[in-house]
Amino acid sequence: MDKKLLAILVCPICKMELEYKKSPEELICRLDKLVYPVKDGIPIMLPSEAKRIINEK
User: Fold this and answer.
1) CATH tag, 3-52
2) Which residues have a Cβ under 8 Å from the Cβ of 57 and sit 6 or more positions away?
3) Using CA atoms, how far apart are residues 9 and 34, in angstroms rounded to an integer?
């Protein structure tokens, strides 16, 4: 993912920074415990597309 894009993306709910995970490609909001998918290099930043993190280590 482009580092410039990653630097400006924030969680659409809480506006906090997102953590990038390369495999599988996704963006993680630790505050809201949500995972946003990245499809074909495009972040899908819709809250309705996010998945809740159930077990976090």
Assistant:
1) 2.20.25.10
2) none
3) 14
